[in-house]
Structure formats: C-alpha cells, structure tokens
User: What shape does this take?
Amino acid sequence: MGLDPIPRLWKAEKVSHSYVADYKPFSFVDGEGVRCSLYVSGCLFKCVGCYNEAAWSFKLGQPFTTELEDRIMEDLAHPAVQGLSLLGGEPFLNTQVALSVVRRMRAEFGRERDLWAWTGYTYEELLEDSDDKLELLSELDVLIDGRYEDELRDLSLAFRGSTNQRVLDARASWAAKEPVLHYSQTVPSPSRS
Assistant: This one.
C-alpha cells in the first residue's frame, strides 16, 4: 500500500513541475469509447505494484505546452472521440496542467465530451482538500478513486486494478456530496471460462 495524504498538505503548486509523461490520442483502454489520454507526471502515493511507477517522477517526460493543449483540442474535435482521460502520475497533484486542459475542453465542447480521471485520493479525501482539487473534481464525469492495493489486485475489474478502488459517477457524487457508483462498477464482469 502507498502513502496516505493529509488533506491540504500535498499541494500541486509545491510538487508539480507541469510535466506530461505521455499523451495518447484515440485510445480504447482508458475509459469508455474512443478517448484522448493525458498522462501527467508525478505522484506521491507510490503504491506498491503500481502499473506506472515511472510516472512517480514529477520531471518525467516533457513540460506541458500550449502546442500540446492545442493538439488535444484538435483530437477531441474528432467525431469518434467520446472524451478525455486524465491519468498519471496523479492528476490532482498536477492541477496546473489538468485544469488548463479541462477549462479549455469545457469552453470548446461543453459537456459534449466526457471527462474521466484516475486518482490515488478517495472521493472523501478530495472533498476535504484545496480549491484546485475541488475545481477539478467538479468538472469530472467519472472518477476512479483510491490507492492501488496490490494484495487486492483483481484483473477482472473494469477500469481499476484493486477491489478497494471505485468507479464513481462524479457528477452524481458532486451533487450528492457523497460517492455514487458509476453503472460500470455495478455491472458484473463477464465470466471467464
């Protein structure tokens, strides 16, 4: 298991260098439908067994640029694209990058494109944290929350790696101010024979 955050102690402006580990347009694995996937650099959770350990470094990859943001918007404009996925690293410790992209996406596409994010924070931890994290949370459609726990690993789960993690309907959760499961978590996984 990784580290537990203390709300309001881990601040994006103190740890992030606004680097991007990777950007993958037209992905089919980071959420539902065809997606643009932005992998931000840096994570303090350092979960044992993390699938993307290289992205723990806040200086992995390249600095985020307006040229990359322009490219993401061009890719999101493709009619086959359903939305944007924010992964990492930890998007909520890279809010300078995440919010820049999200604000522009919402300005250009409104709610025509959905927004998914993966985080080591729980939904409840985010509700107690700083304004930048709350702003990002308020814009999401789907949130996969919780630290990856290697001893709870389950490869049959959709969109998450361990059974403690949740796939949340972020908009319904925001309105209720409590976690509301996304339908994909309530649908049983297909049996493997």
About this structure: The domain at 12-186 is CATH 3.20.20.70 (TIM Barrel). The helical segments are 12-15, 66-76, 95-109, 123-127, 131-139, 170-176, 183-186. Residues 4 and 54 are 20 Å apart (CA to CA).
